[in-house]
Amino acid sequence: MAPQLTDYELEIIARACRALAHREGEDAAKISDPASRGPCRSGRSARRRWRRSSRRRARKGSLAVRSTADAGHHVGILDMGREARGAVLRREYEDAMARMRDADASAKSAFLNNIHQTSEHVVAVYSVASESEREALLKDARTSALEMWNSGDWPSSLGLVISCLNAESRFTPGADAFYVKLATDQLIKEAAQASGRAT
C-alpha cells in the first residue's frame, strides 16, 4: 500500500519537485546559450568534486519523511526527486519521437544509425561513472546533440538523445524511467537490425 503522507510532508515533497523543475529549466537555458557551455570535465577533477560534495551531503544529513500509516517506512525526498527526473526523461523521449514521426526514410536511417553507433558506448561509460562524471557525460552529449541539430543533422542529434535517455533511465527509479528504458531498448534493437540489413 502506498504511504499516506500528511499535508506538511506533501508540501515538502512539492517544494523539492519545484526545485528540481527549476534546475531543469536553468540547465536547458545554459545548453541553449553557447557562452555558458564549458568543456566536459571528467576523471580526477570530477572525482575530487564528487568527494567534496559527498562530504557536504554527509554533514547535512539525509532528508526523509515518515509515513503516518507505517512508522517504519521512510520516503526519501531525494528518491522522490529522482523519480520526478523519470517524468522529465519521458517528456524528452516523447518530444524526440514526435519530431521523428513524419521523418522520411533517409532521416529515419540516420536516426537509427546514430543510435547504433553511440548507445553501447554511452551506456558503458555511464554505467561505471560516478555521479559527477555522469552529469559531465550527459552535459557533453547534450552539447554535441545541439551542435548536430544546429548544423542541420537533426536525425543524428535525436539519435544521440535516445542513447543518453537509455543510459540514464537504467539508473533512475520509477515507472516513467522504466517506460523510457523499455522504449529506448526497443529502438536500440531496431537500430541493430537496421544496421545488419545495411551490411
Structural description of this entry:
By secondary structure, this protein is mainly alpha-helical. It has one domain. It has 7 helices and 2 strands. The chain has helices spanning 7-32, 43-60, 77-100, 105-128, 131-150, 154-169, 175-198, and strands at residues 64-66, 74-76. It has a two-stranded antiparallel sheet with strand order 1-2. The radius of gyration is 19 Å and the shape is globular.
Structural class, from secondary structure content? mainly alpha
Count every beta strand, where a strand is a DSSP E run of 2 or more residues: 2
Low-confidence stretches: 36-43, 57-76
| Distance between the first and last residues' Cα | 51 Å
Q: Sheet bearing the most strands, described?
A: 2 strands, antiparallel
Strand % is under 5%
| Integer-rounded radius of gyration | 19 Å
How would you describe the shape? globular
Helix content percent band = over 70%
Number of structurally distinct domains: 1
Mean model confidence by pLDDT: 75
The oligomeric state is: single chain
* Physical arrangement of strands within the biggest beta sheet: 1-2
Count of alpha/pi helices: 7
Q: What is the helix/strand order? A: HHEEHHHHH
Helix/strand layout:
Layout: H1 7-32, H2 43-60, E1 64-66, E2 74-76, H3 77-100, H4 105-128, H5 131-150, H6 154-169, H7 175-198
Antiparallel strand pairs: 1-2
Offer a quick outline of the entry.
With 199 residues, the protein is mostly helical.
